[in-house]
From TrEMBL:
Domain of life: Bacteria
Organism: Halomonas beimenensis
Name under which the protein is recorded: Xanthine dehydrogenase, molybdenum binding subunit
The keyword Oxidoreductase belongs to this UniProt entry's keyword annotation: yes
Family annotation (InterPro entries): Ald_Oxase/xanthine_DH-like (IPR016208), AldOxase/xan_DH_MoCoBD1 (IPR008274), AldOxase/xan_DH_MoCoBD2 (IPR046867), AldOxase/xan_DH_Mopterin-bd_sf (IPR037165)
Aldehyde oxidase/xanthine dehydrogenase first molybdopterin binding domain segment(s): 4-92
Swiss-Prot/TrEMBL cofactor(s): Mo-molybdopterin; [2Fe-2S] cluster; FAD
SUPFAM superfamilies: Molybdenum cofactor-binding domain (SSF56003)
GO MF, one example: iron ion binding
Family statement drawn from the similarity comment of this UniProt entry: Belongs to the xanthine dehydrogenase family.
Aldehyde oxidase/xanthine dehydrogenase second molybdopterin binding domain location: 119-412
Length: 499
């Protein structure tokens, strides 16, 4: 079990800082990933270099921070002669070891333990580990590797004032609803989720709710659609607007309908299936949504509303390095299996199994798509997307001939993705869901760890390969050759493979 550590994060900012301050901050925040570091000191530095300036990418520094501790977990396991998963499970946050190095208490402690245990079983991790050890023992050239890595990713902007959002809701006399919010739709399904929120609060079919293009003349002072916060912030702002408008319509309906009978029962009112419903049983009264809206318009009731949301509880003191920068954590875990030709450095990802925590999902289809896409994007970042700079600081891998993103042929041959069930968000997020934009990106660290696992078999799992990222075939080959040479030297490390 980890007793402590000292970690230094150095960010290559390029010629100007851009967002490097916040990126290095998040790398420092996530240098623990899912593990209690004990007595740790984490230091961040920003380096000005002769390269073009760098800016943020999916994960915003979190992936780089997590790689530090995941590499350490692998190296510790090989030094002790244990399976890396055993070391990882032993060091997960738990009761009594539940405070991060920046002072935030980790909630839902049982969630990640449950998630890892479920994935461990569903992926048949230990059975495959035995099969791979047997395969590697009789295969001197082609080696297989296996790794299970978890993810604990903090959700919120670490700059506090950005954790706010607004929305404008308009209802027209034909019963249609238009919503405008401050988030940007870039293919991640944000507009669909916000429409779902409004439709749910107003009891309407999704087809009756539309979103107009994001415009600051409708919703001003928008925060970036980043930090995996799009649905959390804008969904809550849209919900606030819908709830306020709904209550106004309830007040109107209670006084307007059935006045001769004393009006409708305000306390029992609800919107469902395109109707205002009041009363229970035989006394139930159902008024179509369109009729309600028309009556409200004729009664000179406003059919527009603004909404606003500010994330609660978060705070952070940069001077002391202590606080609660994140509203909650999203979790996940992935098992990756690879096959490596150690004479050429070529490899393939033969299988990936993912179990991811999205709380009570707003839209499982969208969330699974985000998980699949995030994993493949992260895999590209860690394996093929190589940035090559010349001595003058110019990027020379600046086109498709030299910068390789994953293609269809790079997908795992078997790709299993599932959502964790039975663990709603402990915080009052939008319908107890969790963000899904960035966390899946870091699940791909399992591919890098699996490559290192395959190479470690060249030295009977007694040595750890020096495999930098991106783990291109060239780097894999160099790591394999270095490991073979090192294996010829005497060693006092435990002489057995992980069981």
């Amino acid at each position: 079990m980890l007793a402590g550590g000292e970690i230094t994060v150095i960010g290559d900012c390029g010629y100007s800082p851009d967002l490097s301050d916040a990126i290095v901050d998040r790398a420092m925040f996530h240098s623990d990933n899912a593990y209690s570091l004990g007595d740790a000191r984490v230091t961040g530095q920003r380096a000005r270099t002769h390269k073009a300036s760098n800016t943020a990418f999916r994960g915003f520094g979190g992936p780089q921070g997590m790689m530090i501790i995941e590499r350490a977990m692998d190296d510790i396991a090989r030094h002790l002669g244990e399976d890396p998963l055993t070391i990882r499970k032993r060091n997960l946050y738990r009761q009594g070891r539940d405070v991060t190095h920046y002072g935030q208490r980790v909630e839902q402690l049982g969630l990640l333990h449950d998630l890892v245990a479920q994935l461990e079983a569903s992926s048949d991790y230990w059975g495959r580990r035995r099969e791979i050890a047997a395969f590697n023992a009789q295969s001197p050239i082609v080696k297989k590797g296996l790794a299970l890595t978890p993810v604990k990713f903090g959700i919120s902007f670490t700059v506090q004032h950005l954790n706010q959002a607004g929305a404008l809701l308009l209802v027209y006399t034909d019963g249609s609803v238009m919503i405008n919010h401050g988030g940007t739709e870039m293919g991640q399904g944000l507009h669909t989720k916000v429409c779902q929120v409004v439709a749910r609060e107003l009891g309407l079919d999704l087809e009756r709710v539309r979103i107009s293009a994001t415009r600051t003349d409708k919703v001003p002072n928008t925060s970036p659609t980043a930090a995996s916060s799009g649905a959390d912030l804008n969904g809550q702002a849209a919900r606030d607007a819908a709830c306020k408008l709904r209550e106004r319509l309830f007040d109107f309906a209670a006084a307007h309908f059935d006045r001769e009978a004393g009006g409708l029962d305000r306390e029992s009112m609800r919107l469902e299936d395109g109707h205002l419903v009041a009363g229970i049983g035989e006394a139930e009264r159902r008024i179509p949504w369109g009729e309600l809206v028309q009556a409200a318009y004729m009664g000179r009731v406003s059919l527009s509303e603004k909404g606003f949301y500010a994330t609660p509880l978060i705070h952070y003191d940069r001077a002391t390095g202590r606080g609660r920068p994140f509203y909650y954590y999203a979790h996940g875990a992935a098992v990756a299996e690879v096959e490596v030709d150690t004479l050429s450095g070529e490899y393939r990802v033969s299988r990936a199994d993912i179990l991811h925590d999205v709380g009570d999902s707003l839209n499982p289809a969208i969330d699974i798509g985000q998980i699949e896409g995030g994993f493949i994007q992260g895999m590209g970042w860690l394996t093929s997307e190589e940035l090559v700079w010349n001595d003058a600081g110019r990027l020379v891998s600046d086109g498709p001939a030299t910068y390789k993103i994953p293609a269809f042929g790079d997908l795992p041959e078997t790709f299993n993705v599932a959502l964790l069930q039975g663990h709603p968000n402990s915080q009052a997020s939008i319908y107890r869901s969790k963000a899904v934009g960035e966390p899946p990106f870091m699940l791909a660290i399992s591919v890098w760890s699996a490559l290192r696992d395959a190479l470690a078999s060249l030295a009977d799992y007694r040595l750890s390969p020096a495999l930098d990222t991106p783990a291109t075939p060239e780097r894999v080959l160099m790591a394999a050759e270095a490991l073979r040479q090192a294996h010829d030297a005497p060693t006092t490390r435990p002489d057995h493979a992980p069981a």
